[in-house]
Amino acid sequence: MIDAMQDLYDRATGWLFEILLQPLMYEFGLMDWADEAFRWMDFFVFGVIQVLVVCLVCLPLERWRPVERWESSRLVWTDVLYTMLARLGILPMLGFILFFAASTRIEGMIADSGFVPPTLETLLPWLRDVPLVAFALYIVILDFAEYWRHRLQHRFSWWWALHSIHHAQTQMTFWTDDRNHVLDDIIAAAWFGIIAVAIGVPPGQFPLILLVLRLAESLSHANVRLDFGRVGERLLVSPRFHRLHHGVLSVGNSGKNYGVLLPVWDWIFGTGDFRSDHYPRTGDPDAPEAYVRGGWLTQQAVGLRQVWRALTTR
Q1: For 168-295, where are the alpha helices, taking DSSP H only?
Q2: pTM
Q3: What is the rounded CA–CA span in Å between residue 104 and residue 99?
C-alpha cells in the first residue's frame, strides 16, 4: 500500500513538473537546472499536501468548539506565514535527503572496511515482510527522539531563547505548530534527519511518517476544546494535553507534556500533566514583546539577539 501511494505521488509530481516547470525552463534556457527544479517541485507538492490535510482536519474543529474567541486574529496571520514558509520549504525533508546522501557515501566507506552498521531492519529482519509494522516502529522511535529534543529545547537557555518564539503566541491555533525560529527549524531538521537515516527509514516511507507527525503536532496546537477521554489521553496527545504545555505557568524548565504524538514518554519520565477539562491561557510572560506582536522578520532578528545574549550572559 505504501509503495502504491509513493508511486501515485511520484507520477503526480512528475506530471506537474512536465506541464508547469519544464516548458518554462525550455523557454528560458534553464534545463541545466532540471534536477534541482524537480526536487523543488517535489518539496513544494508535498508541502501543499501537508497544509491541505492539516486544514481539512483542524479548521472544522476550531470552528466547532474553540477554546478562545478573539476580536482580532492579526497575530494568527503571522503564524500562517510561518506555516507557508516551513511547510512549502520542507526543511525536514531537505534534511533527510542531505543526510541520506551523506550517509550513502559514509556507508560506502564503512563497507570497504567490512563493517555493516545495524539498522532497525537488520536487527529485526522480519520487519521487511511487514512494512506496516516497520512503519509504526519508525514512528514510535522518531517520536521518542522528538520528545527528548523538545525537553532539551526547554533545558538549555540558548535553545529556549529560540523556542520561546513558539511559546510566546497568546492566540494559539493549529498554525502555531510552525511558529519557530529558522535556526531552530534547521536544528530540528538535522536531528530528525540523522535519526531517521540511522535507524534505516526507507526514503519512500519518510514523507508519510513526516505527514503523520506533522498532522499530530498541528492538531495538538488547535484552538479547540477537545480531549480524548481518560484512556485516550494516555494513548495520543490531544489539544487539551498539549495546551497545558503552552500554558503561561508552564514555560521554560517548569514545562510539562513534551510529547508530540505519544503521551507515554511523559508518563514514563514523570513530565505528564493529565488534568482533565483544563485549558489555560497560552503565552510566555517573559518573552520579548517582539515575540508576541512582531512580524516574521522581526522575530527572527530578535531571536538571534536573544540567543547571543543567552550564550554570553551567565
Answers
A1: 182-198, 206-221, 229-232, 239-246, 264-268, 289-293
A2: 0.83
A3: 8
Amino acid letter for position 50 = Q
User: What three-state secondary structure class fits 87?
Assistant: helix
CA distance 303 to 168: 12
| Predicted confidence band of residue 19 (pLDDT cuts 50, 70, 90) | confident
* Cα three-residue angle 151-153-156, rounded to 5 degrees: 105
Per DSSP, 223 falls in state S
In angstroms, the first-to-last Cα distance of the chain is 54
Query: Would you state the torsion angle of the CA atoms of residues 204, 207, 208, 210, taken in this order, to the nearest 10 degrees?
Result: 140
Tens digit of each residue's pLDDT (9 = 90 or more) over 62-115: 999 999 999 888 899 999 999 988 877 555 555 555 555 666 666 566 556 666
> Is the Cβ–Cβ distance between 144 and 266 less than 8 Å?
no
The amino acid present at 179, given as its one-letter code, is: R
Side-chain half-sphere CA neighbours of 115 within 13 A: 7
Query: One-letter amino acid identity for 259?
Result: G
A 10 A CB-CB count for 116 gives: 10
Q: Which three cell numbers stand for residue 182?
A: 529558522
| Helical pair 131-155 and 206-221, crossing angle rounded to 10 deg | 50
Query: Would you kindly state where each structural domain of the chain is located, as residue ranges?
Result: 2-91+138-179+204-312
